[in-house]
Design a protein that fits this description.
The structure is a single chain. With about 325 residues, the protein is an alpha/beta fold. It has a domain at about 5-180 and about 215-240: NAD(P)-binding Rossmann-like Domain (Rossmann fold, 3-Layer(aba) Sandwich). Helix content is about 45%, strand content about 15%. The chain has 11 helices and 12 strands. It has helices at about 10-25, 60-70, 85-90, 90-110, 145-165, 190-195, 215-230, 245-255, 285-290, 300-310, 315-330; strands at about 5, 30-35, 50-55, 75, 115-120, 170-175, 175-180, 205, 210-215, 235-240, 245, 265-270. A 7-stranded parallel sheet has the order 3-2-1-4-5-6-10, sandwiched between helices. It is globular and about 55 Å long. The relative contact order is 0.14. The chain binds nicotinamide-adenine-dinucleotide (NAD) and 2'deoxy-thymidine-5'-diphospho-alpha-D-glucose. 2'deoxy-thymidine-5'-diphospho-alpha-D-glucose binds near residues 82, 122, 177, 203 and 204.
């Protein structure tokens, strides 16, 4: 694969993936991104111009998508509206981008016979009880809770249907919660880090007992590349790094690493329909494709992420007050 179209390549995980491709392969990348509030040109600035190209455009626009797909050897599809809280305030962009956008890409890869990898989330499986011994696997039934996760679930089902009905050469991955550089500060970990840097207190929804399964975004990138290269067409692979933590533990670790008392946080209004626990069993990916995560120590991954936000205040500072004002309206 010499030429890869990466949708959403100016977002958090997409931009980290573009860096991974440039650093560890000789493929060239075209990023298709319409630069929503969640995008960051800086995240891909500085990459070699002969390897990486940015096209500003909408994945739901067939006239934009078709010629780019025609030129690509493979499409890796990250573009999405990705934040649950936003989907509760206004679901409409989620329906357009996550469903119509994915449909538009699928029609283009069908026309051109292009390899397609669809990046999805563990949230399509709904949630687990805290004491459930089970984790999500590739055969767990879909049961999404929010407008975000239901549109991602719908997009996965479109991909499966295009594989079966039209023979599209696609794979799907469902990954757990990512952390690392360039994550938008509306999301949990960067919100709390930048709160502390800004002299504000971290905010935990509800009792803070919900569990997320954390993976460094660099490990997500290497997993997606392994699936693109060696995954079996039509298959789904779950991506996770055995990183289950309660939200309270995450905040206490951040406070500790930043030299603050570990109880210096506030409990705030819970998220409606808040999923209790996500947990990934990534045995299939590890045994079939030989993938393993590199960031296995969450505390040191978190420390490096804190350092990144400390060193890159110019990147997050302009949006901080507006993000916090939106959360304040919701009592969060
Ligand atoms: P993000 O919100 O940081 O980035 C999304 C990117 O998509 C942005 O650059 C945005 O401009 C672009 N985009 C949005 N709508 C578009 C459109 N209509 N046309 C073109 N570009 C558009 O998201 P993220 O956290 O990097 O997530 C990337 C993907 O990974 C998503 O598909 C998400 O569902 C999935 N995922 C995320 C996580 C996580 O923890 N963040 C975990 C598992 C899976
Ligand atoms: O599981 C994968 C998913 O992880 C991805 O599909 C989504 O794109 C990504 O946003 C993420 O979804 P979550 O809803 O789990 O992530 P978020 O960062 O919004 O919240 C993580 C947890 O922290 C969740 O239990 C809600 C809680 N939370 C969040 C914020 C922003 C707080 O307690 N306080 C906060 O201020």
């Amino acid at each position: 694969m010499r030429s890869i179209l990466v949708t959403g390549g100016a977002g958090f995980i997409g931009s980290n993936f573009v860096h991974h491709v440039v650093d560890s392969t000789d493929a060239s990348v075209t990023v298709l991104d319409n630069l929503t509030y969640a995008a960051s040109r800086e995240a891909i600035d500085g990459l070699p111009g002969d390897r990486v190209d940015l096209v500003v455009g909408d994945i739901a626009d067939a006239d934009v998508v078709d010629p780019l797909v025609a030129e690509a050897d493979a499409v890796v599809h990250f573009a999405a509206e990705s934040h649950n809280d936003n989907s509760l305030n206004d679901p409409s962009p989620f329906v357009r981008t996550n469903l119509v956008g994915t449909f538009t890409l699928l029609e283009a890869v069908r026309r051109h016979g292009t390899r397609f990898h669809h990046v999805s989330t563990d949230e399509v499986y709904g949630d687990l009880e805290l004491d459930d011994p089970a984790r999500f696997t590739e055969t767990t039934p879909y049961n999404p809770s929010s407008p975000y996760s239901s549109t991602k679930a719908g997009s996965d089902l479109l991909v499966r249907a295009w594989v079966r009905s039209f023979g599209v050469a696609a794979t799907i991955s469902n990954c757990s919660n990512n952390y690392g550089p360039y994550q938008h500060i509306e999301k949990f970990i960067p919100r709390q880090i930048t709160n502390v840097l800004d002299g504000r207190r971290p905010r935990l929804y509800g009792e803070g007992l919900n569990v997320r399964d954390w993976i460094h975004t660099a490990d997500h990138s290497s997993a997606v590349w392994a699936i693109l290269e060696r995954g079996r067409i039509g298959e789904t692979y779950l991506i996770g790094a055995d990183g289950e933590e309660t939200n309270r533990d995450v905040v206490e670790t951040i406070l500790d690493l930043m030299g603050q008392p570990t109880d210096a946080y506030d409990l705030v209004t819970d998220r409606p329909g808040h999923d209790m626990r996500y947990a990934i069993d990534s045995t299939k990916l590890r045994t079939e494709l030989g993938w393993a995560p590199q960031f296995t120590d969450f505390r040191s991954g978190l420390a490096a992420t804190i350092d990144w936000y400390r060193a890159n205040e110019a990147w997050w500072r302009p949006s901080k007050d507006a993000v916090e004002a939106r959360y304040a309206e919701a009592g969060q």
